[in-house]
Specification:
It is a single chain. The chain starts with a helix and ends in a 15-residue tail after the last strand. The protein is an alpha+beta fold and 219 residues long. The longest helix is centred in the first third of the chain and has 22 residues.
């Protein structure tokens, strides 16, 4: 299969998803357990709104509407997670080169020239400094809360993540403990890790083929 072209197109879409974030309808404040409602548009909703709103519009108008939606999502995120907003204020939004895209298995460069093509499914959209700062701050926040009383199962993990403001998290039980992945509501990036035993959470961009969960398979 000709994957490079697919990867490039998907990277552009994934970058848009990273900027708009995943949907959530109930995001609590940055204080653990202090819930207050918030609304963030999901990528599909934002895309539909942009498509319908830009029908008959010029490219400049469509871009302006997209920027407005992005700014609104970022403002909602900052109101919901003020500590993260304060920690990352002033960070650069310069987009890294696609060449900096990492794979989930590291930066190993094998002799097989087809390796990267065959493992596009495991490649990640790179994060700019602001996205990385937000991701690291959210990861530290989740890790600290989970360490207080590590969830013993998916239900407890889901309840913890929802309370902290990540209701869209995908949670599952594995031999290594309770695993989860989620996109920070409104702005991204992705958070993934283990919540049981010794919690370990990392921030990363979405996969080139879409979403925060590592795709299965390859060529």
């Amino acid at each position: 299969m000709k994957r490079p072209a697919l990867a490039a197109a998907t990277a552009a879409l994934a970058t848009g998803a990273l900027l708009t974030g995943c949907g959530s309808t109930h995001a609590p404040s940055d204080q653990a357990g202090a819930a207050r409602p918030a609304v963030s548009a999901s990528p599909s909703v934002s895309a539909s709104a942009s498509a319908s709103g830009s029908a008959g519009s010029t490219p400049e108008e469509a871009q302006r509407k997209f920027e407005e939606q992005r700014e609104q999502a970022a403002a909602e995120h900052d109101r919901t997670f003020p500590a993260v907003a304060a920690a990352c204020a002033g960070k650069s939004t310069a987009t890294p080169s696609p060449a900096a895209t990492a794979t989930a298995s590291g930066s190993y460069q094998p002799e097989n020239p087809k390796y990267n093509e065959n493992h596009v499914y495991a490649q990640l959209v790179p994060l700019n400094p602001l996205q990385q700062c937000r991701g690291d701050a959210h990861a530290a926040r989740v890790t600290a809360e989970a360490a207080k009383q590590p969830p013993t199962g998916p239900d407890q993990a889901k309840a913890l993540l929802t309370r902290l403001g990540y209701p869209g998290a995908a949670v599952g039980q594995t031999a290594n403990g309770v695993q989860f992945s989620v996109s920070v509501p409104g702005v991204g990036p992705c958070l993934s890790g283990t919540l049981s035993a010794t919690p370990r959470v990392e921030a990363h961009g979405p996969y080139l083929e879409g979403g925060c969960e590592r795709p299965k398979g390859g060529h």
